[in-house]
Amino acid sequence: MPRPEIEFATPEEEEAYARKALTKAGVPISQYEAIREHKSRGGTHGAGIYTKEMLGVRRWMVQELLAAKMSNRQIANVLQLSKETVNGDRHFNRDLYTQEILKNQDTHRARLLKEQMDLKELALASFETSKRKKTVTIMDGGDDGGKEMVKIEESAGDASFLNVAKNSLVEQAKLLGLNEIKPVENQDTSYRTFLKDLSSTIEKEKEAKATEERRGNSLLASAETISFDAEPESEPLPETMPLQTINEDDY
Question: pLDDT tens digit string along 212-226?
Protein backbone atom coordinates (compact mmCIF):
# COMPACT_ATOMS: atom_id res chain seq x y z
CA MET A 1 0.00 0.00 0.00
CA PRO A 2 1.57 3.40 -0.98
CA ARG A 3 2.38 5.79 1.81
CA PRO A 4 0.45 9.10 1.98
CA GLU A 5 2.19 12.15 0.59
CA ILE A 6 1.82 13.99 3.92
CA GLU A 7 2.24 12.38 7.33
CA PHE A 8 1.04 13.78 10.65
CA ALA A 9 2.37 13.07 14.11
CA THR A 10 -1.01 13.30 15.86
CA PRO A 11 -4.70 13.26 14.87
CA GLU A 12 -4.95 16.86 16.08
CA GLU A 13 -2.24 17.96 13.66
CA GLU A 14 -4.01 16.09 10.86
CA GLU A 15 -7.35 17.78 11.65
CA ALA A 16 -5.73 21.22 11.87
CA TYR A 17 -4.13 20.78 8.48
CA ALA A 18 -7.46 19.75 6.92
CA ARG A 19 -9.30 22.68 8.54
CA LYS A 20 -6.71 25.13 7.22
CA ALA A 21 -6.86 23.66 3.68
CA LEU A 22 -10.67 23.81 3.57
CA THR A 23 -10.76 27.37 4.93
CA LYS A 24 -8.28 28.42 2.26
CA ALA A 25 -10.54 26.80 -0.39
CA GLY A 26 -13.51 28.85 0.84
CA VAL A 27 -15.41 26.13 2.72
CA PRO A 28 -17.32 27.64 5.69
CA ILE A 29 -16.26 26.24 9.05
CA SER A 30 -19.95 25.69 9.96
CA GLN A 31 -20.36 23.29 7.02
CA TYR A 32 -17.12 21.54 7.93
CA GLU A 33 -18.36 21.01 11.49
CA ALA A 34 -21.78 19.86 10.22
CA ILE A 35 -20.19 17.10 8.15
CA ARG A 36 -18.02 16.02 11.08
CA GLU A 37 -20.99 15.94 13.48
CA HIS A 38 -23.25 14.05 11.10
CA LYS A 39 -22.27 10.72 12.65
CA SER A 40 -23.34 11.82 16.13
CA ARG A 41 -26.73 12.97 14.76
CA GLY A 42 -27.69 9.53 13.51
CA GLY A 43 -25.36 8.89 10.59
CA THR A 44 -23.47 5.64 10.82
CA HIS A 45 -19.87 6.53 9.97
CA GLY A 46 -20.92 8.63 6.98
CA ALA A 47 -23.70 6.31 5.85
CA GLY A 48 -26.56 8.39 7.19
CA ILE A 49 -29.07 10.40 5.19
CA TYR A 50 -27.62 13.55 3.66
CA THR A 51 -29.52 16.41 2.15
CA LYS A 52 -28.63 17.32 -1.40
CA GLU A 53 -26.81 20.40 -0.19
CA MET A 54 -24.80 18.51 2.44
CA LEU A 55 -23.90 15.80 -0.08
CA GLY A 56 -22.55 18.40 -2.48
CA VAL A 57 -20.56 20.11 0.31
CA ARG A 58 -19.08 16.79 1.43
CA ARG A 59 -17.92 15.95 -2.09
CA TRP A 60 -16.49 19.44 -2.41
CA MET A 61 -14.52 18.93 0.82
CA VAL A 62 -13.22 15.56 -0.33
CA GLN A 63 -11.99 17.09 -3.58
CA GLU A 64 -10.26 19.97 -1.83
CA LEU A 65 -8.53 17.68 0.65
CA LEU A 66 -7.38 15.44 -2.18
CA ALA A 67 -5.93 18.53 -3.85
CA ALA A 68 -4.16 19.24 -0.53
CA LYS A 69 -2.40 15.85 -0.99
CA MET A 70 -4.23 14.03 1.81
CA SER A 71 -4.95 10.30 1.44
CA ASN A 72 -8.36 8.62 1.56
CA ARG A 73 -7.70 7.36 5.08
CA GLN A 74 -6.67 10.82 6.33
CA ILE A 75 -9.73 12.44 4.75
CA ALA A 76 -11.96 9.79 6.31
CA ASN A 77 -10.42 10.54 9.72
CA VAL A 78 -10.90 14.31 9.64
CA LEU A 79 -14.42 14.22 8.14
CA GLN A 80 -15.56 11.26 10.26
CA LEU A 81 -16.40 9.18 7.18
CA SER A 82 -15.62 5.67 6.03
CA LYS A 83 -12.86 5.11 3.47
CA GLU A 84 -15.47 3.60 1.15
CA THR A 85 -17.51 6.82 1.29
CA VAL A 86 -14.45 8.93 0.56
CA ASN A 87 -13.48 6.66 -2.30
CA GLY A 88 -17.02 6.85 -3.71
CA ASP A 89 -16.98 10.66 -3.55
CA ARG A 90 -13.58 10.65 -5.21
CA HIS A 91 -14.83 8.56 -8.16
CA PHE A 92 -17.98 10.68 -8.45
CA ASN A 93 -15.93 13.88 -8.66
CA ARG A 94 -13.63 12.36 -11.26
CA ASP A 95 -16.54 11.17 -13.43
CA LEU A 96 -18.23 14.56 -13.14
CA TYR A 97 -15.00 16.30 -14.13
CA THR A 98 -14.60 13.98 -17.11
CA GLN A 99 -18.16 14.67 -18.26
CA GLU A 100 -17.58 18.41 -18.06
CA ILE A 101 -14.43 18.10 -20.14
CA LEU A 102 -16.23 16.05 -22.77
CA LYS A 103 -19.13 18.51 -22.78
CA ASN A 104 -16.73 21.42 -23.32
CA GLN A 105 -14.94 19.49 -26.05
CA ASP A 106 -18.23 18.78 -27.83
CA THR A 107 -19.19 22.46 -27.68
CA HIS A 108 -15.80 23.54 -28.97
CA ARG A 109 -15.88 20.88 -31.70
CA ALA A 110 -19.35 21.98 -32.82
CA ARG A 111 -18.21 25.62 -33.04
CA LEU A 112 -15.15 24.67 -35.12
CA LEU A 113 -17.28 22.46 -37.34
CA LYS A 114 -19.71 25.33 -38.05
CA GLU A 115 -16.79 27.65 -38.87
CA GLN A 116 -15.38 25.14 -41.35
CA MET A 117 -18.79 24.65 -42.97
CA ASP A 118 -19.26 28.43 -43.33
CA LEU A 119 -15.77 28.78 -44.76
CA LYS A 120 -16.47 26.07 -47.33
CA GLU A 121 -19.71 27.75 -48.44
CA LEU A 122 -17.96 31.12 -48.71
CA ALA A 123 -15.14 29.60 -50.76
CA LEU A 124 -17.57 27.94 -53.18
CA ALA A 125 -19.55 31.18 -53.57
CA SER A 126 -16.33 33.10 -54.23
CA PHE A 127 -15.33 30.53 -56.83
CA GLU A 128 -18.63 31.01 -58.68
CA THR A 129 -18.14 34.79 -58.56
CA SER A 130 -14.61 34.48 -59.93
CA LYS A 131 -15.97 32.67 -62.99
CA ARG A 132 -17.93 35.75 -64.14
CA LYS A 133 -15.82 38.39 -65.79
CA LYS A 134 -17.33 41.77 -66.66
CA THR A 135 -15.94 43.61 -69.70
CA VAL A 136 -16.90 47.20 -70.61
CA THR A 137 -16.31 48.28 -74.21
CA ILE A 138 -16.81 51.90 -75.41
CA MET A 139 -17.88 52.14 -79.04
CA ASP A 140 -16.76 55.07 -81.16
CA GLY A 141 -19.68 57.39 -81.81
CA GLY A 142 -18.17 60.54 -83.33
CA ASP A 143 -18.66 63.93 -81.74
CA ASP A 144 -21.57 62.76 -79.62
CA GLY A 145 -19.41 60.28 -77.79
CA GLY A 146 -19.62 56.52 -77.82
CA LYS A 147 -21.88 53.94 -76.41
CA GLU A 148 -20.86 51.52 -73.69
CA MET A 149 -21.27 47.83 -74.28
CA VAL A 150 -21.11 45.58 -71.23
CA LYS A 151 -20.11 42.00 -71.86
CA ILE A 152 -20.03 39.31 -69.18
CA GLU A 153 -18.01 36.20 -69.84
CA GLU A 154 -17.48 33.05 -67.77
CA SER A 155 -14.01 31.70 -67.24
CA ALA A 156 -12.67 28.63 -65.50
CA GLY A 157 -12.63 30.46 -62.17
CA ASP A 158 -9.98 30.86 -59.50
CA ALA A 159 -8.85 27.39 -58.38
CA SER A 160 -7.54 28.71 -55.07
CA PHE A 161 -11.12 28.96 -53.78
CA LEU A 162 -11.61 25.27 -54.54
CA ASN A 163 -8.47 24.44 -52.53
CA VAL A 164 -9.91 26.36 -49.57
CA ALA A 165 -13.19 24.42 -49.85
CA LYS A 166 -11.29 21.13 -50.08
CA ASN A 167 -9.21 21.92 -46.97
CA SER A 168 -12.41 22.81 -45.12
CA LEU A 169 -13.86 19.41 -45.94
CA VAL A 170 -10.68 17.75 -44.68
CA GLU A 171 -10.92 19.65 -41.39
CA GLN A 172 -14.59 18.68 -41.04
CA ALA A 173 -13.64 15.03 -41.49
CA LYS A 174 -10.99 15.36 -38.76
CA LEU A 175 -13.45 17.00 -36.36
CA LEU A 176 -15.98 14.23 -36.96
CA GLY A 177 -13.34 11.49 -36.68
CA LEU A 178 -13.99 10.22 -40.20
CA ASN A 179 -10.31 10.35 -41.11
CA GLU A 180 -9.58 7.66 -38.50
CA ILE A 181 -11.78 5.06 -40.25
CA LYS A 182 -9.48 2.59 -42.00
CA PRO A 183 -10.56 0.34 -44.86
CA VAL A 184 -10.66 -3.39 -44.26
CA GLU A 185 -7.39 -4.97 -45.34
CA ASN A 186 -7.29 -7.45 -48.23
CA GLN A 187 -10.81 -6.53 -49.32
CA ASP A 188 -11.17 -6.07 -53.11
CA THR A 189 -14.76 -5.40 -54.13
CA SER A 190 -14.10 -3.99 -57.58
CA TYR A 191 -16.35 -4.82 -60.51
CA ARG A 192 -13.52 -6.59 -62.33
CA THR A 193 -12.89 -8.92 -59.39
CA PHE A 194 -16.62 -9.63 -59.16
CA LEU A 195 -16.72 -10.67 -62.83
CA LYS A 196 -13.62 -12.80 -62.36
CA ASP A 197 -15.14 -14.66 -59.43
CA LEU A 198 -18.42 -15.11 -61.32
CA SER A 199 -16.62 -16.52 -64.36
CA SER A 200 -14.65 -18.92 -62.18
CA THR A 201 -17.85 -20.16 -60.55
CA ILE A 202 -19.51 -20.73 -63.93
CA GLU A 203 -16.50 -22.68 -65.22
CA LYS A 204 -16.55 -24.90 -62.15
CA GLU A 205 -20.26 -25.59 -62.65
CA LYS A 206 -19.68 -26.48 -66.32
CA GLU A 207 -16.83 -28.82 -65.45
CA ALA A 208 -18.88 -30.56 -62.78
CA LYS A 209 -21.81 -30.99 -65.20
CA ALA A 210 -19.53 -32.42 -67.94
CA THR A 211 -18.00 -34.88 -65.48
CA GLU A 212 -21.46 -36.01 -64.46
CA GLU A 213 -22.49 -36.55 -68.11
CA ARG A 214 -19.35 -38.59 -68.88
CA ARG A 215 -20.03 -40.74 -65.87
CA GLY A 216 -23.61 -41.34 -67.02
CA ASN A 217 -22.55 -42.29 -70.56
CA SER A 218 -20.01 -44.75 -69.18
CA LEU A 219 -22.67 -46.52 -67.14
CA LEU A 220 -24.99 -46.82 -70.17
CA ALA A 221 -22.25 -48.39 -72.31
CA SER A 222 -21.51 -51.00 -69.68
CA ALA A 223 -25.19 -51.91 -69.42
CA GLU A 224 -25.46 -52.47 -73.19
CA THR A 225 -22.39 -54.73 -73.36
CA ILE A 226 -23.51 -57.08 -70.63
CA SER A 227 -27.13 -58.30 -71.09
CA PHE A 228 -28.63 -60.93 -68.86
CA ASP A 229 -31.71 -61.42 -71.14
CA ALA A 230 -29.82 -62.66 -74.25
CA GLU A 231 -30.36 -66.33 -75.25
CA PRO A 232 -27.28 -68.56 -75.86
CA GLU A 233 -26.49 -69.12 -79.46
CA SER A 234 -27.21 -72.79 -80.77
CA GLU A 235 -25.26 -74.57 -83.46
CA PRO A 236 -27.13 -74.79 -86.83
CA LEU A 237 -28.59 -78.21 -87.73
CA PRO A 238 -27.08 -80.00 -90.76
CA GLU A 239 -29.21 -80.00 -93.88
CA THR A 240 -29.05 -83.85 -94.34
CA MET A 241 -28.70 -86.64 -91.86
CA PRO A 242 -26.06 -89.33 -92.68
CA LEU A 243 -27.51 -92.78 -93.44
CA GLN A 244 -26.42 -95.63 -91.22
CA THR A 245 -25.95 -99.21 -92.56
CA ILE A 246 -28.00 -101.79 -90.76
CA ASN A 247 -26.58 -105.30 -90.60
CA GLU A 248 -28.85 -108.33 -90.28
CA ASP A 249 -26.49 -109.83 -87.77
CA ASP A 250 -27.32 -107.12 -85.31
CA TYR A 251 -30.86 -108.52 -84.80
Answer: 777 766 655 555 554
Burial of 62 (0-12, 13-18, 19+ CB in 10 A): buried
State the Cα–Cα distance between residues 40 and 46, nearest whole angstrom.
10
Identity (one letter) of the amino acid at 184? Answer: V
Residue 47 — very low, low, confident or very high, per pLDDT cuts 50/70/90? very low
188 three-state secondary structure: coil
What are the CB-based long-range contacts (under 8 Å, 24+) for 187-192? none
Point out the domain boundary residue: 158, 177, 196.
Answer: 177
In a domain, 98, yes or no: no
Are 124 and 173 found together in one domain? yes
C-alpha dist (Å) from residue 104 to 109, 111, 160: 8, 11, 34
For residue 213, being part of any structural domain is answered with no
In a domain, 152, yes or no: yes
Please say whether the beta carbons of 23 and 65 come within 8 A: no
> Does 61 fall in a domain?
yes
What is the number of domains present in the chain? 2
